[in-house]
Design brief:
alpha+beta; Beta-galactosidase, Chain A, domain 5; 8-stranded antiparallel β-sheet; globular
Length: about 600
């Protein structure tokens, strides 16, 4: 992935840009081969002989990608970047000859509206311009690109050769079609500016633990998924990458989930990035403004509430995994835990030293008033199940956490005229209810929902949020049960979604869920199994791809990543676990966490 803090491009090992949405993460894609084939848009730039690269890497401390091919005839490098956005989006690609003479080919197929619309291509001075409806792209290059294919020139192609020291730049600029084109960005200046930006940003990192490279890469990835104009954080850069190859568990993650964002807030605060936390809190206040009863689990990057779900029939899906979905109907689900998780995130921000804001406290009061009346409603749970609503244990634990944080805020910060005794009573009532109805004494474990025999990896968070202490036998028993019953080749699934009662209302199964394994890292450390915790963490580091990126899920049998990518949820789990592993065990009970939802 390369990105400009408003959108991102995904680039394959063959040098092809197979996914990019313009002008922002949740806009229609102009390169959508990732979910189809070359007919749906891509931009390959690599050796004429083809093939995957020999090596690739990010420049240290940046989001600048370097891809290299070491061939019999020579060695060549392609540098890809998107400079942090000014007024318009730019994708810069620079070919560098390293040794010998290498024949190179570029083939650019622009297809707007997720591969559905072939643009009209015209000459624009020395550049080419592709237009379709509201979208316009200008392509500048020092080598002439010939228009091939159908009569409108739907493929832009060029061949050239590079030797040692040769540099051949390409710049793709996006702008609204009704606006005049501007002068192209100077590619080498953009490269320098981008490198300076990322190095300057990363200087703010306060992490000094055992895994700096992994933490820095995850933090850069989380920053890259931030939508800079509003402070929202996209859950992932993609839509509809399957949780099961050939299956239908394909969802659009290009929006901001409150839980994901809350956990990302913790990761950023914990590593010194207070400005990002402040921007996210401001986004939250805008997004949830209004009746607290209308709080949603997710919002658009600009705070919009309506995210209608529909399918794109012309895209066959990744390796035939259909349907391809745009939008997400889960935005309309009832998930009681989101109130508690939002309260927990705001509490964490206050504890980190963000300045007090009366609007923030008024929001918390309003959320508490609603939660007081509805904490025991049946809901869809954090995993966004599309089956029947249940009394999910995690939902009620997080409702408890919401009241607990309010009580602690009053006690610590001297807030007056607050019904703290009533909040304490509700907190205690929820606690008793969960321990009575959500705990299986015979198996010594909490369960996924009241009356269920099933388990849920989110139960690992019971100790982390302080519902019970880490050394409580019920917490230790739950950690053991989750590890035993949800384990798959040493990693965790989030729950048994192929159970006979069809808990989530969907066919098929899925692989191990990466963030749940980071939760297990934290839980093992919390209950004192430190060596096992560190070993699991280091195994998870080895699961990352060659660039240090993580998707949503991982299949141990095939060694393949599954689900949308790069996944904020997985990367924030990595950062938060690295932070917690660096803490003395006795201090960990004071560390709080918020949780997440996922279909």
């Amino acid at each position: 992935m390369v990105g400009d803090l408003q959108t991102a491009a995904l680039i394959g090992r063959d040098g092809s840009v197979d996914w990019m949405c313009l002008p922002r993460f949740d806009s229609p894609a102009c390169f959508a081969e990732l979910l189809g084939d070359e007919r749906h848009g891509s931009w390959r730039l690599g050796p004429t002989s083809g093939g995957d690269c020999t090596s690739r890497r990010y420049r240290d401390g940046t989001l600048i990608l370097e891809t290299e091919w070491d061939l019999p005839e020579g060695r060549v490098r392609v540098i890809d970047l998107m400079p942090p956005r000014g007024d318009e989006a730019d994708l810069v690609r620079i070919v560098e000859g390293v040794s010998g003479k290498v024949a190179m080919t570029t083939e650019l197929r622009l297809r707007f509206d997720y591969g559905n619309i072939v643009p009209w291509i015209t000459q624009d001075g020395d550049a080419l311009r592709a237009v379709a409806g509201p979208d316009s792209v200008r392509i500048d290059s020092v080598v002439p690109m010939a228009r091939e294919g159908v009569s409108d020139g739907s493929v832009l192609r060029a061949e050239f050769t590079v030797g040692p020291g040769d540099r051949v730049p390409f710049v793709l600029n996006y702008h609204a079609s009704h606006l005049e084109t501007r002068d192209p960005v100077e590619p080498y200046a953009a490269l320098r500016d981008s490198e300076d930006f990322w190095h300057s940003w990363l200087e703010g990192c306060s992490y000094t633990g055992q895994w700096p490279d992994a933490v820095h890469r995850s933090l850069i990835t989380l920053k890259a998924l931030t939508y800079a104009p509003t402070g929202a954080i996209a859950a992932a850069a993609t839509t509809s990458l399957p949780e099961q190859l050939g299956g239908t568990r394909n969802w659009d993650y290009r929006y901001c989930w409150l839980r994901d964002a809350g956990l990302t807030l913790q990761a950023l605060i914990g590593t010194g990035f207070i400005d990002e936390a402040r921007e996210w809190r401001a986004w939250l206040l805008r997004a949830v403004a209004g009746d607290p009863a209308d709080l949603q689990i997710m919002y658009g990057l600009d705070g919009r509430r309506r995210l209608p779900e529909y399918t794109l029939d012309w895209l066959p899906g990744f390796e035939g995994s259909a349907p391809v979905r745009i939008g997400n109907d889960a935005a309309g689900q009832l998930q009681i835990d989101v109130w508690g998780e939002t309260l927990d995130a705001l509490h964490h921000a206050r504890e980190a030293g963000l300045e007090q804001d009366q609007d923030v406290w008024r929001l918390q009061r309003a959320l508490l008033e609603h939660l007081e009346e509805h904490w025991d409603d049946l809901d869809n749970g954090l995993w966004e199940v599309r089956g029947p609503r249940r009394a999910f244990v995690h939902s009620r634990v997080m409702a408890w956490a919401g009241f607990d944080r309010a009580v602690r805020a009053v006690e610590k910060y001297g807030l007056v005229d607050e019904p703290v005794e009533r909040w304490r009573a509700v907190r205690d009532r929820i606690h008793d209810d969960v321990c009575t109805h959500g705990f299986d004494a015979e198996r010594n474990t909490f369960t996924q929902f009241y009356g269920s025999d099933g388990l849920d990896a989110a139960l690992l968070l019971i100790g982390q949020v302080g519902f019970l202490s880490w050394d409580d036998p019920r917490v230790v028993g739950t950690v053991d049960a989750v590890q035993r019953e949800l384990g798959q080749d040493g990693l965790l699934r989030r729950y048994h979604n192929e159970a006979d009662d069809q808990v989530d209302g969907l066919p098929g199964a899925e692989a191990t869920f990466l963030v749940c394994n980071f939760w297990l890292v934290d839980a093992l450390h919390g209950i004192g199994r430190v060596d096992e915790s560190v070993a699991l963490f280091e195994r998870l580091l080895a699961v990352r791809n060659d660039l240090g990126l993580l998707s949503e899920e991982y299949d141990p049998a095939t060694g393949r990543h599954l689900g949308n990518t790069p996944q904020a949820f997985s990367h924030l789990g990595l950062v938060n676990s690295a932070l917690r592993l660096g803490q003395p065990r006795e201090s960990r009970q004071a560390t709080q966490s918020v949780t997440v939802d996922r279909s």
